[in-house]
Structures are given as C-alpha cells and as structure tokens.
C-alpha cells in the first residue's frame, strides 16, 4: 500500500489516503507528458538528424559505434541510433514502468539484439565484463532537460557519464545547449511577484515593506511565453546569450555565474527576465531545436508547439530603474538544478560575482502562489468584491471571512463594518495578513482566528452573531474549480452562529461547461501510434491502462489562458449550489444535452465555477468574456479550469442534431463531482 495526498473539499485539507502500491505509477504515467514529447515532430526530427550525423562521424573514423542513451523513455532515440547504423545501444531509464514499456517497444520494432534497456539511474550503471555495459560508449544521446534546462539533474548526470560511462572525445547529441535571456519591464508579470497598492474607497492599502524587499521564492515560473503578448512588456535590452554547455566534453555540476553586458535600449524599471534555451544537435550548429517563444522566432507561423519544454520567467530580487543607453550587466547563476538572475555592477568582472540563490524571507511568497499574487493585484476583480461588499455592509455588520490568505476582511473594515473576524488555519498566512494590517495601521481592525470553522464558537465572536459571511472563495488546497465548494461546508459548519437575516457572499456558485477544440493541448492525451516510423503503441496502451485506473474518469486542472481553444457549443450552466442553504445530505444529479453550434474536432469539455456575489455582480473563474462568433475563448489567468479529455477526438459536422450529453453528480459526503460526457449523433 501507499499513502497519497488528495484534496478533500469537505474539509479544505489535504488528506492522506491509502491506495494500492501501483497508484503512484499509474498517476505518474497518466499525468505524464510522454505523449506530448512523442507528438513533438520538430524535436524528434532534429534528434534523428543529429543522431544520423553523429553515427556517420564515428563510422568515418573507423570505430565501432556504441551509443549510451540516458533518459531513454520509450527507447525512441535508441531505435533511431541503431537504425542510423549504430552497432549497439545501451538505453538507461530509471522509471520502471517506462523501462518495461521501452523493452516492449524495442522488441516490437525488432531491435532487441542491438538495444539493451537498463532500469537504473545512470549514476548506478557499471561498465566492464560483469557490468551493465560491456564497454564505454562513443556517442552520448540524452534527453534530460526541462523548461529550465538543468532542472532534471542534467549537469550531475552528464558529469558522471563523462567520468564513468563514455569515452574521451565522444560525440554527443545534443552537442551543446545555450541559454538566452531578455531583461524587461512588465507590470503584468511583476504583479505575479509583488503586491501592489490597492485602492479601497479612498483608502490606499500598502504592501508590507518586508514583502517589497523580499527576493521571492527561487523556483522558476514556467509558462507558455508565446501566449504573453509583446504588448504586455517593454524590452530594456537585447536578447542576450548568457552561456553555453558543450555536452561532448566533461561537464561540471559546480555552481557558476555568467554575465552579459549591454546598453539599455530604453528607459524603464528592470523587473523581470524572460529566458529560454536551444540545443544544437551537431557541432556546427546546423541542426537547432529552439525553445524561443513564437514572437522571438523569425517565422512565428511555423513555431513548434510543445508543453514538455516551455519558457521561463524569473523575477529580479528588486526592481531597478534603468536609463536608456545605461551600461547594464545581467547575471545568471546556477547550482546543479536551478537558475536565477540578478542585475550586477557593470564594472564588476563576472569571475568575481558572488550571487546567492534567492529565498523568501517575508513568507508572503510561500503563502501566495504567483497566480494568487496576480489575482490579488487584479484591479477589476478587486472592484467587483468591493462593490459587492459596499452593497451589503451596514454600520452594525459583524463579518466573518473564510478564505486562505484573503484581503476581503480588510476591505470589509475599510468599508465600515463594525466587527470583522477572519478564519486562517495556516499560521504562516496569519502572519502575512498581520503584516498587511500593521503596515496600514490596522492592527486591531481584523481579528484573525487560527481555528477551523467547526471549532468556532460564540465566545470566539465575542458574543456576536455573524451578519455577513464572506469568501472569495479561495483555498490553497483546491485543485479543481469545484474544490472551492469547501466554503459551502464552512457555511454549514457555522450555521448556528449566523444571524437569522445574515447575508452570504457569494450567495451561490454555478458550474459551467463548454465543449472545446484545443489548438494544441490535445497532444498531451492523444495516442501516438507511430513516431518517426517506429511503432510506439505499447506506450499508448500503457498510458491508457493508467488512465483507466482512475484518471480517465476525472477532469484535470489546466491554466487555459496558456492553451488556446475554440468553443464548439454555447457555455452552459449545469449545476448551481445555493450557499444561503446548508450542504444537502442527498446527491445532486444533473443530466442534459448541449447542442453543438460550430464544426470542429471536439477534444473534451472545460468546466469552471462562477460565483454570484450580489444580484448583479458575478465573478468568473473561467471565461472572462463572451465567446466570440469564431468560438475564441478568453480565460481567467489566475485560476485553473477543469478539463475532461475524451478518449479520442470527435469530429463535429455542424448538424444541429449533434449534441454534448452530460451527466453530473455532486456527492456531498466527499464534496466532489462525478461526471460523464459523450457526443450524441443524429
């Protein structure tokens, strides 16, 4: 047996539940991006070209070609190598289910006599007559990269391979990698890292100095940078080549720093670094696979989409004013697994740079995720909540707020509520909100209670009944849109403490659905069949078995602002939850059919929540604008939406009798929604 964390919407907690020993494997496979990699034609073709060229160079030297493939996955690159003429290939894959799939794929394609799959970490592989490898390899093929290039341990793996597994002067595919970066000013992106002043009815709520001075969390922010419009940032410098790694030579995993110097091309506030990398598959750099966003490519229309490698956003420890033509030095530093950027003194040599990995000292960056920072900084969203509170608050209002790390209770005080209480179960969140209160001389304006809703008593409320129960709702443990229904359970838990005429904000939540055609996201779930002429269907079968274990019957969260899609039907409200009433004891069932209104390829269904704050104010966690005539969708950038993928894409002809049938059941005892969707044909 194994214990797995799972969000529990009835308690707002992460429960540890007992699963079978295979559960972790199945979940890892079901949620993996293996299919996305195999659908990445640009990647596959470039690897194949690089491998052919490397094999030809070794053969031209009259040597026997022995290939080492680290991170072999399905064995695709190993099969490319032997097809290109390699005499033998050692395929190393540490993940057991994947190694088993690779053995099956290699056998099905007839390469079992020339490819040996080794189910170990590469640092555990031995060489010698009795070892895993009989001899050192003279071609090193790897796919050990993530969005940050080195985040999957590429440096220590290469370091060990050169020391113990490959020959001196070996060929490497890829041959080198190069990191690029651009310094920009971007209010949109900076709002993901720093709380901005917030205007509330003439009051200017200031962020704590500790947050402003904090360098933030060190983890990379990986996004589909092609979906960030160039209009949302101002380049302060050129795209800089920061450093390169030659994989055909010994690689060090030791920490290092590199500096690019340039004259600022415009004045502004240096806030954010946009970064990506490319890999040269050959020594001459004729075969290049680039991760550059579409707007940085010479031919944006032919930009290859991929989700397993994206682009990176790094937030500087502090923003700095830069003048046009000013000499500027941008430094990138790395340890063995991560990168970070800083602005340094332009007179300082890069060999003398000492750059420490940033870490959060204010705790706000640990309480609020980057999308949450963006949400709290969303002026339009703030105005919706302030307007709603303004409509319902009275001078004698006693308010209770139930949300994680929320500013709503502060808004309620500034709008004139008599008493404001806030439930914050996280000690760290309590400290962050307390910092905000102290910074704005509001120390006693909100009473923060570190207890759970079911523990709340009249004594905690100083004998007051609750006249306004409010929530965004936002809870850090929520993974899917309807997990925020935890607020409904909180409302039920405090029912006896509510005033008979209490106002609940939001008063209701509605689940919406829409059938969609994804521009690219479908690739992460689509079967591959064959890839570059090789049969990889055992991989498809393995993923399908893992999906059938549980995942195929569940939706999964995705930030759809990064993944364009087209609506094939009108959005439909399918289930409404009345927060003015307690959670019912019996399940809520809804069935129906939504007619398709557009032709296309239906890949699945998107689900999201909308919350009714007042009779005329609604906030959407999904669509932020009506779907246009072409079906284009604009999604809330601060929340993830739920996506239910169909097993295979379904062609919609436009016949008005075609429809999306749905069956949804909200089960109160688990706080989750069971769902099934299908397409009905005439």
UniProtKB/TrEMBL annotation:
Pfam families: PrmA (PF06325), PRMT_C (PF22528). The keyword Methyltransferase applies. Keywords: Methyltransferase, Repeat, S-adenosyl-L-methionine, Transferase. Its EC number is 2.1.1.321. GO terms for molecular function: histone methyltransferase activity; protein-arginine omega-N monomethyltransferase activity. The keyword Transferase applies. It is an enzyme of class 2 (transferase). Arginine methyltransferase that can both catalyze the formation of omega-N monomethylarginine (MMA) and symmetrical dimethylarginine (sDMA), with a preference for the formation of MMA. Specifically mediates the symmetrical dimethylation of arginine residues in the small nuclear ribonucleoproteins Sm D1 (SNRPD1) and Sm D3 (SNRPD3); such methylation being required for the assembly and biogenesis of snRNP core particles. Specifically mediates the symmetric dimethylation of histone H4 'Arg-3' to form H4R3me2s. This is Protein arginine N-methyltransferase 7. It comes from Triplophysa rosa (Cave loach).
């Amino acid at each position: 047996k194994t214990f797995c964390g799972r969000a529990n919407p009835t308690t707002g907690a992460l429960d540890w539940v007992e699963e079978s020993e295979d559960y972790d494997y199945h979940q890892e496979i079901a949620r993996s991006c293996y299919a996305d990699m195999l659908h990445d034609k640009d990647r596959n073709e470039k690897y194949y070209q690089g491998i052919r060229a490397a094999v030809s160079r070794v053969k031209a030297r009259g040597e026997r070609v022995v290939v080492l493939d680290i991170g072999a996955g399905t064995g695709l690159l190993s099969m490319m190598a032997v097809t290109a003429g390699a005499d033998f290939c050692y395929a190393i894959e540490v993940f057991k289910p994947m190694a088993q799939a690779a053995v099956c794929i290699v056998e099905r394609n007839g390469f079992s006599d020339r490819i040996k799959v080794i189910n170990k970490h590469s640092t555990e592989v031995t060489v010698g007559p009795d070892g895993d490898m009989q001899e050192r390899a003279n071609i090193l093929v790897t796919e050990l990269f993530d969005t940050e290039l080195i985040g999957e341990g590429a440096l220590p793996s290469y370091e060990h391979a050169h020391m113990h597994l490959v020959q001196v002067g070996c060929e490497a595919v890829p041959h080198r990698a190069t990191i690029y970066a651009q310094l920009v000013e971007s209010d949109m992106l900076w709002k993901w890292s720093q709380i901005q002043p917030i205007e509330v009815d003439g009051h200017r709520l200031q962020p704590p100095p500790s947050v402003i001075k904090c360098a933030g969390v060190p983890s990379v922010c990986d996004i589909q940078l092609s979906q960030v419009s160039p209009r949302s940032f101002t380049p302060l410098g050129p795209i800089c080549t920061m450093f390169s790694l030659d994989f055909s030579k010994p690689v060090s995993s030791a920490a290092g720093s590199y500096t690019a110097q340039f004259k600022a091309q415009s004045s502004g506030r240096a806030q954010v670094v946009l970064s990506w990398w490319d890999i040269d598959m050959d020594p001459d750099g004729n075969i290049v696979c680039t991760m550059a966003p579409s707007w940085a490519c010479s031919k944006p229309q032919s930009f290859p989409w991929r989700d397993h490698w994206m682009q990176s956003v790094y937030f500087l420890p502090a923003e700095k004013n830069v003048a046009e033509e000013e000499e500027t030095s941008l430094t990138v530093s790395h340890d063995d697994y991560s990168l970070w950027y800083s602005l340094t003194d332009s007179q300082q040599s890069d060999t003398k740079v000492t750059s420490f990995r940033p870490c959060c000292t204010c705790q706000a960056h640990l309480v609020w995720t980057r999308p949450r920072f963006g949400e709290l900084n969303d002026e339009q969203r703030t105005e919706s909540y302030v307007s709603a509170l303004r409509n319902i608050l009275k001078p004698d209002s006693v308010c209770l707020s139930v949300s994680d790390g929320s500013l709503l209770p502060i808004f309620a005080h500034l709008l004139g509520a008599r008493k404001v209480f806030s439930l914050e179960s996280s000690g760290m969140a309590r400290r962050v909100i307390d910092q905000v209160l102290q910074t704005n001389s509001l120390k006693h304006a909100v009473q923060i209670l570190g207890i759970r809703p079911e523990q709340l008593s009249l004594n905690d409320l100083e004998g007051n009944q609750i006249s306004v129960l409010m929530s965004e709702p936002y809870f850090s443990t929520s993974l899917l849109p309807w997990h925020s229904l935890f607020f409904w359970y909180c409302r039920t838990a405090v029912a006896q403490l509510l005033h008979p005429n209490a106002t609940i904000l939001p008063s209701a939540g509605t689940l919406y659905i829409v059938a969609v055609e994804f521009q690219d996201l479908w690739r992460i779930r689509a079967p591959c069949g064959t890839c570059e002429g090789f049969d990889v269907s055992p991989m498809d079968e393995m993923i399908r078995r893992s999906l059938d274990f549980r995942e195929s019957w569940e939706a999964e969260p995705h930030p759809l602002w990064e993944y364009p899609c087209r609506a094939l039907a009108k959005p439909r409200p399918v289930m409404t939850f009345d927060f003015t009433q307690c959670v019912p004891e019996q399940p809520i069932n809804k069935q129906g059919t939504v007619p398709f209104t557009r032709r296309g390829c239906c890949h699945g269904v998107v689900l999201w929540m909308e919350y009714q704050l007042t009779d005329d104010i609604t906030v959407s966690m999904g669509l932020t604008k009506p779907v246009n005539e072409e079906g284009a969708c604009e999604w809330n950038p601060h929340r993830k939406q739920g996506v239910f993928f169909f097993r295979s894409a379904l062609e919609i002809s436009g016949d008005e009798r075609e429809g999306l049938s749905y069956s949804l059941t909200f089960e109160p005892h688990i706080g989750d929604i069971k769902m099934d969707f299908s397409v009905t044909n005439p």
